[in-house]
């Protein structure tokens, strides 16, 4: 019996290590067909990505976090060049670092065949969809356009169960909204 006494702690340690290995091995085994993984979404599969925007909040470098006036609460299509731009007018000057888009529960994704499905936006209805910006100086009372850098393949996750999710952080740019007049390089000659 004295021979087993010194070996007993070693046997307990070995059993604990082996039981830990079985858990680790089960984690690295291939997933079965019932455990379908998330995958990248093909751009051709999506017709529109509609976010249900309720309000926009700006985070300024001075520590101010304010609701940005002049933002229309409505549905915006992140794929559309015109509807994907959001107009905003700050009430004071400062350096804007990021914008949080607080979303309602009506965000949807439209498949290429026209089918509308709910779009899962993690924290979209609580802390908002974050739009990361380069530090951008804003002037009070000037209207700006927020353009969101959006890619279906990068920013939409297609889940194995047929649902879609929007990643919680996107990139964007803010530029002054101005009227652009294109002047041709040479003016036509007036008729004589």
Automatic annotation (TrEMBL):
It comes from Hymenobacter swuensis DY53. InterPro entries: DUF4382. This is DUF4382 domain-containing protein. Residues 47-168 form the DUF4382 domain. It comes from the Bacteria.
């Amino acid at each position: 019996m004295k021979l087993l006494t010194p070996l007993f702690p070693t046997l307990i340690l070995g059993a604990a290590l082996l039981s830990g290995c079985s858990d680790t091995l089960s984690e690295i085994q291939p997933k079965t067909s019932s455990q379908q993984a998330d995958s990248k979404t093909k751009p051709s599969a999506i017709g529109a990505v509609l976010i249900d925007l309720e309000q926009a909040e700006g985070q300024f470098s001075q520590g101010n976090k304010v609701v940005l006036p002049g933002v229309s609460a409505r549905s915006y299509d992140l794929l559309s060049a015109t509807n994907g731009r959001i107009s905003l007018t700050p009430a004071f000057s400062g350096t804007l670092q990021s914008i949080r888009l607080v979303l309602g529960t009506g965000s949807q994704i439209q498949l290429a065949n026209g089918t509308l499905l709910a779009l899962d936006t993690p924290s979209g209805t609580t802390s908002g969809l974050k739009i990361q910006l380069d530090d951008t100086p804003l002037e009070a009372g000037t209207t700006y356009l927020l353009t969101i850098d959006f890619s279906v393949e990068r920013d939409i996750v297609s889940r194995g169960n047929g649902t879609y999710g929007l990643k919680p952080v996107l990139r964007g740019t803010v530029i002054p909204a101005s009227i652009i007049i294109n002047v041709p390089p040479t003016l036509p000659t007036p008729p004589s």
